[in-house]
Fold these 2 entries.
Entry 1:
Amino acid sequence: MSLYERIPNNVDLSNDKRLLRALEHWLPNYMQWWSDMGPEGFQADDVYLRTATSVEPGGWAHFDYVKMPDYRWGIFLAPPEHDRLVGFGDHMGLPVWQEVPGEYRNMLRRLIVTQGDTEPASVEQQRLLGQSAPSLYDLRNLFQVNVEEGRHLWAMVYLLHSYFGRDGREESEELLERRSGSSDKPRILEAFNEPIEDWLSFYMFTTFTDRDGKYQLLALAESGFDPLSRTTRFMLTEEAHHMFVGESGVRRVVRRACEIMRETGDDDVRRQGVVDLPTVQKYINLWFSLSLDLFGGEVSSNAASFFSAGMKGRAQEPKYADHLALEGSYAVAGEDIPLRNAMNEVLRDSYIEDCEKCLERWNRVITEHEIPYQLRLPDRRFHRHIGAYAAHRFDPAGHRLTVEQWNERRDEFLPGEKDSAYVRNLMAPGIPEIGKIAHWISKPTTGIHGKPFEFEYVRREQ
Ligand code: BYC
Ligand code: FE
Ligand code: FE
């Protein structure tokens, strides 16, 4: 079997000479990148992973032990929709594009590269976490997320290779050259240069930042460039698990804190070796605000151009009544902005609404334990670096602070050095033993793919 026959796909790869030639160059560099920047210390272990092998609803995933470097990263597009028409913007009602429209080439390339850049960035951010995993179940979930983000990079590289010629090949190489957190060649978007050094950050990232992924992918799934729409639609099926890992991870941390509070009656549960709820709140403040920045400026002519061109819509565009968005306005930072220019804010609003639901589910756990504490999302103005609120300081309730007040109170709102050190020490080293779990987190209610929690999700190399 040739290397290329091992790539699961539904794009007729074996007959696509152009794509094969491009991949021939790129694949060894990808493997080198994975070995340098992928999960550190576990590359020789057998991991119980799901692999996408088709796009059949319900039947696309295959579960088995695999060593991560042997993972079969594949190329999948959701099935075509017959006679699909552009659903919004200036070309509304015309047939969708199967090739890149010349006038929008740069715009599309930029959207695809920005999307693609986040995928390997997240793997880089998470590469040391394996060493402090609270259980084999969590370790496996981390690696599942990592290999799928790797596949999401493939999805964008497929588009670049197939539709953007030499530029696309160059961009694909650069996607492997930028590095999260590097001062030289950083990743494009800010949240993807932030370190993720402990599991609470990982669960927050997969809750809030992967959820930005969901909303950006939903917006791109509406694209009139059909190959982009079809790739992102399939990526969304994988994204659900990433957000599950995050939301259930935070919930288990919260549950454990509540249990220990009830059991010991100690209101300073750090003394009892778990994460106290005020610290959970600070991590929410950090990762929610970093993720809000990922939607771009509130008022954006880029966003208006993406929409007009029919390249990037709103999440679930068919839900809206007016797909031209030429009339009407949107209230942004106290001003009415022409709707097309407010598309980033419209998407951010859908996202915030979704995040609120997570918070409700976490708070339910606290309420069940009859503890008088509630977690909340900080105001959208809090700790922003992009857009209308970036120039000023705000507290989590959205009240304006002076720079002095902010400096003085920062560690009330965001994890400070002491908080991060506490969380890091609490979690290290990890507990990679069958059926065992760290003290600071509760067990998941179910295992993976019908297996019990006590399953050997990662078989350590002897
Ligand atoms: N950081 O008009 P503006 C995921 C730049 S996550 C740094 O306000 P625009 C995943 C912007 O580039 C989903 N720079 O924003 C999750 C522009 O630069 P120029 C990722 C930023 O262009 C977890 C300037 O500021 N996908 O998949 O409307 C794990 C003014 O821009 C940032 C996408 O993002 C920032 N946060 O929107 C793994 C979809 N924000 O023109 C994966 C593709 C803005 O002055 N990207 N800038 O040089 C887009 O749709 C848009 O590029 C953005 C920004 C929404 C990101
Ligand atoms: Fe992704
Ligand atoms: Fe993801």
Note: The chain has a mean pLDDT of 96.
Entry 2:
Amino acid sequence: VMVDKGNHRHFMLKEIYEQPTVVGQTLGSYLDPLAETVTVPGLCFDPKALSRITLIACGTSYYAAMIAQYWLEHYAKIPVTVDIASEFRYRQPVMTRGGLSLFISQSGETADTLAALRHCKAEGQITATIVNVAQSTMAREADMVFPTHAGPEIGVASTKAFTCQLAVLAALSIAFGVARGHIDQTEQAALVRVLNEIPSRMSEALQAEQQVASHAADLSRARDVLYLGRGADYPLALEGALKLKEISYIHAEGYAAGEIKHGPIALIDPNVPVIVIAPKGPLFEKTISNMEEVIARGGKVILMSCKEGIASQGRTAGNSIEMPAVHPLASPLVYAIPVQLLAYHTAVLKGTDVDQPRNLAKSVTVE
Ligand code: G6P
């Protein structure tokens, strides 16, 4: 497929900007906005009968899996295990009868994820895959395919494939919750409206690009950067750190905000920027109290939150990034945008090869 950058300087930036459209397309194939229901075409298993879901992936797709664990537990009340494919395949994981093994992969060709899929199939698990490449090996070999409709992703560091994976995982979590009797019709309708509005909220998030870019100079001078989050935004903190490492070559770590006192707080000084992902939601106050611990030790915080969240902390544009107010289910998709843009603008300032970072491959088809 021939794809060009259009008016954008890099494929990565073009792909970041495509997200409202491709997430909308992906959600569109799982939602019926008129009936306000989630519909998963051609399910080959009964969600009521699942004993467990094992989510397996690598890289950014692995962080999508981690986020989905919060959703599947919360909405569908299914036991969930999340695994890195290269670890899973060399352990002796105990698989339960009636388990679903779900493999998440942009390319559908990642060697470790494919090996894990073959292992689970041989173990008698139901296998399914969330893939962006419809003709991929994983799509051919799994019992069921849940496609993402991100279109070809050229930038080596995944962006739009990630948010499309999240869109599918959010829809599945609700569909399974409905099938298992944990979500009634009214709640389903409300959640479908939340999902349906995600593309608009993502467009609003893109409008913060200049504000995000204004923090890139500080980041580009840092040797280490920390990302903190809680709940489903904790894996997003991991993804933020991964994006920054991949394309700007700055060392970054994502941490569960409540865990900083068990290590990373020792790193805090005025030279370590700390990105705090704190949407207004049930865990806001908890995350903010961790932010205060960082500030008390001289840490330089950039707070990502909504207008109300930022104002409640007396912060300004100089030390925050304003996002639209969103439902907790939508926050990892919406906050992915400033996380990606921050890595992007930092890398551009550092002059790295954003679309093809050194030593990395788009698809790792050898072990
Ligand atoms: C490589 C890419 C990442 C991607 C990972 C998993 O490391 O650089 O962006 O997340 O592979 O790829 P997959 O195609 O399985 O999602």
Note: The CA atoms of residues 57 and 170 lie 17 Å apart.
